[in-house]
Amino acid sequence: xxxxxxxxxxxxxxxxxxxxxxxxxxxxxxxxxxxxxxxxxxxxxxxxxxxxxxxxxxxxxxxxxxxxxxxxxxxxxxxxxxxxxxxxxxxxxxxxxxxxxxxxxxxxxxxxxxxxxxxxxxxxxxxxxxxxxxxxxxxxxxxxxxxxxxxxxxxxxxxxxxxxxxxxxxxxxxxxxxxxxxxxxxxxxxxxxxxxxxxxxxxxxxxxxxxxxxxxxxxxxxxxxxxxxxxxxxxxxxxxxxxxxxxxxxxxxxxxxxxxxxxxxxxxxxxxxxxxxxxxxxxxxxxxxxxxxxxxxxxxxxxxxxxxxxxxxxxxxxxxxxxxxxxxxxxxxxxxxxxxxxxxxxxxxxxxxxxxxxxxxxxxxxxxxxxxxxxxxxxxxxxxxxxxxxxxxxxxxx
Length: 398
Ligand code: EPS
Hints:
Number of domains: 1
Number of strands: 17
Bound molecules: ligand EPS
Radius of gyration: 22 Å
Largest sheet: 5 strands, antiparallel
C-alpha cells in the first residue's frame, strides 16, 4: 500500500487531524519525538502571539498499540488551545452565525481573494482558516512518523536557514550538512552562521517596527539515502518532481531547487556535474563509487544517486501586514487597506522544519515503493539484499 497522508481541520477550530495510510507494522513510535518536531515548528524569532498560546502535541488516536504501529491507518490529532476563544466564531452550529464580522478586505498574497471567488463565499474566513500555515502542524506530525521510519534505516533528515530577507549567509553545498543543522538548532533564525543569524534577528525587529514581514530561503537535506529511490521511467515517479510538489505545496513556498538549481543553469556543464570517482563510503549505499561534489542534490534522472539529498526552498514574506497594502472590500467594491489580524513577522525557521517533514515523507514514500511496506522487518531484509547486490556489482576500489 502506498504511503500517503491527508489532513483536515481549521486554524481556529477544535483540532487538526492527520491520517497517515501505508505505515508499515512494527515501527516504534515515540510520541515525544513527534512532540519535539511540533515544538521545533513553533520556534524561531519573528513568530507571532499564537505560538505563545499553543503547545502543540499530537494525540495518537489510531494505528498504534503499545508503542508500535500495527499496519492500520495512523490517526493523529493536534488540539488548538485557541479554540476556546473561537467557539462561537468557528462554531459548526448555525447559532454561531454573525458572532464575528466577516473578513471582506482581502489580503494580497493570501488565498482570501481567489478562494472566495472559487467557492462562492462572502466571508474570507471560510478560506483563510484552512489556507493558514497552521495546517503545517499536521504535516509535521506526518513527517515525524516518516522520520521515525527512515531512522530505522539510518536515513536522517535536517535543515538550516540560508537567508532571511536581504540577509543571505554564504554557504558551501559541499559543507557538512549535519553540523550546519546542529548549529541551526541553537540559532534564533536557524542560520548556522551566528553573525548572519544576529543580523537576521535585527532585520526582524526593524520589519516588525515597520509593520512589514520577511521571507527567506532554507535548505533541507537527507543523509544515508540509498541509490535507487524514485524512477527515470515516468513523470509522476521522478523523485525530483515529487519533491518539487511536496515543497511547493507548503504554504508560502514560491520556489524550490534540487541541489544548486537555478545557479547551475548559469554555469557550463563542466562546473555543474558531479564527477564519479572510485571508492564508496563505509555504509555502502552508493555502490562502490563516490562523487567529487554534490551539486545535483543527490538526484540524477529522477533517481536518488546515493549522495546526500538536498533541496533549497524560497518562502515569500507572510501576506498579513500590520501596515497593510491596498485592497478592495468585497462587500462594497470600494478601495480599502487589506485586513490585518495576529500573524508572524517571519516564519522561515518554522518553514524549514515543515520542509524537513515534506522531504522525509516523500523519501519514506519512495523507500516503501522500493522496499515494501507491510512490516519493518521485511523492509530491512529487502534493503540488505539490495545493498548486497549493488555492492557486489560495483566492487569498492578503495
Ligand atoms: C500559524 C498559526 C497562525 C499564524 C500563522 C501560522 O495563527 P493565528 O492566525 O491564530 O495568529 O501564526 O499563520 C499565517 C501566517 C497565515 O498566513 O495564516 C502556525 O501555527 O504556524
